[in-house]
């Protein structure tokens, strides 16, 4: 039942994002607006609800399948990028690098120090020649 409540919360914020973008004519994705709304709500709330965490974990396991339709959709509009492949390639490379660096920074910032030190010792134990 917890996962169902979590999905309803996520769906509610997605719908709120959709309404917000439609009413205000914002130039952002409806899903991104929903994620921003839930992020603001969670910051104001001060903690992550167990129902939302349960539903989110289920979605993270399926993340590759959730991204796939957008990636496949690019092939249907590839002719629109005919003269802009350099810009697209640079945007993909820079965006990917920024995403990786941001994720690393957030992980280091919020991971407990005890978990970091045990992970470092595991890495060193796995590679004795370093």
Automatic annotation (TrEMBL):
<keyword id="KW-0472">Membrane</keyword>
<protein>
    <recommendedName>
        <fullName>CidA/LrgA family protein</fullName>
    </recommendedName>
</protein>
<feature type="transmembrane region" description="Helical">
    <location>
        <begin position="84"/>
        <end position="108"/>
    </location>
</feature>
<feature type="transmembrane region" description="Helical">
    <location>
        <begin position="7"/>
        <end position="26"/>
    </location>
</feature>
<keyword id="KW-0812">Transmembrane</keyword>
<keyword id="KW-1003">Cell membrane</keyword>
<dbReference type="Pfam" id="PF03788">
    <property type="entry name" value="LrgA"/>
</dbReference>
<keyword id="KW-1133">Transmembrane helix</keyword>
<feature type="transmembrane region" description="Helical">
    <location>
        <begin position="60"/>
        <end position="78"/>
    </location>
</feature>
<dbReference type="InterPro" id="IPR005538">
    <property type="entry name" value="LrgA/CidA"/>
</dbReference>
